[in-house]
């Protein structure tokens, strides 16, 4: 496979992408295929390891057979095929895209969600470490419960439909962590209307703040925030 030069594939990424006709439950010790999909991949996984390649979790989709009037519909299979292509492209982007791009995209999505101030805050807590340390002008908040306490204050103060403008982003690798930990320095301008019963008494807000985040980036490209500091910029 690799000829006389055993290092020709060393360090390269190995991705398996395939579709499966059968349902997910059939790839189980109690199903008719008896083994999981991952277990069927062990020989290929070991081959990748022997060649010194970086093995990534396979991308696969079930129920990809269309038998008219018997199994699935054409629309269902075509929809799954499109979803499969999206999953594959997302994994390739995760593997090949620079960390800065991933973090900058995350920052944009984070503040776009904050602009809406949704009642349910699950989007935010998904990306917060369990012991996240959050320091805001209102005080210090620890963990997911602390975030929820602060978020309740924010929703009681600012009206949904506010505008967070990301004026500056600087991303720096942090420490000897193989590139997985980063410090993110942000300059954010918040423009919003406040509720009359809030501490801002219905005033319009045009606030400039500096934010410093400590974030990690896992092998799948997911960002997790560990420290979150917000400091208003003085008008002096």
From TrEMBL:
Q: Which domain of life is it from?
A: Bacteria
Q: Can you give the residue ranges of the Flavodoxin-like fold domain? A: 6-69
Q: What single Pfam family name could you report for this chain, choosing any that match?
A: Flavodoxin_2
Q: Which InterPro entries match?
A: Flavodoxin_fold (IPR003680), Flavoprotein-like_sf (IPR029039), NTF2-like_dom_sf (IPR032710)
Tell me which SUPFAM superfamilies the record gives.
Flavoproteins, NTF2-like
- According to UniProt, the name of this protein is NAD(P)H-dependent oxidoreductase
């Amino acid at each position: 496979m690799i000829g006389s030069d055993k290092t020709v594939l060393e360090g390269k990424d190995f991705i398996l992408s395939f579709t499966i006709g059968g349902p997910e439950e059939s790839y189980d010790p109690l199903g008719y295929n008896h083994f999981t999909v991952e277990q069927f991949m062990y020989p290929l996984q070991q081959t990748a390891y022997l060649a010194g390649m970086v093995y990534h979790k396979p991308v696969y989709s079930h129920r990809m057979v269309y038998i008219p009037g018997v199994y699935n519909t054409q629309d269902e299979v075509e929809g799954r095929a499109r979803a499969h292509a999206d999953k594959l492209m997302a994994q390739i982007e995760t593997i090949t895209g620079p960390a800065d791009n991933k973090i900058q995209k995350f920052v944009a999505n984070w503040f776009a969600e904050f602009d809406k101030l949704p009642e349910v805050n699950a989007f935010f807590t998904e990306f917060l470490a369990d012991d996240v340390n959050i320091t805001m002008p209102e005080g210090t908040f620890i963990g997911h419960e602390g975030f929820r306490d602060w978020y309740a204050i924010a929703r009681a103060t600012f009206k949904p439909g506010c505008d967070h403008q990301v004026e500056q982003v600087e991303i720096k690798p942090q420490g000897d962590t193989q590139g997985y930990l980063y410090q993110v320095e942000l300059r954010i301008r918040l423009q919003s209307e406040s509720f009359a019963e809030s501490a801002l008494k219905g005033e319009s807000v045009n606030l400039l703040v500096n934010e410093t985040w400590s974030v990690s980036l896992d092998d799948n490209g997911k960002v997790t925030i560990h420290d979150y500091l917000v400091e208003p910029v003085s008008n002096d």
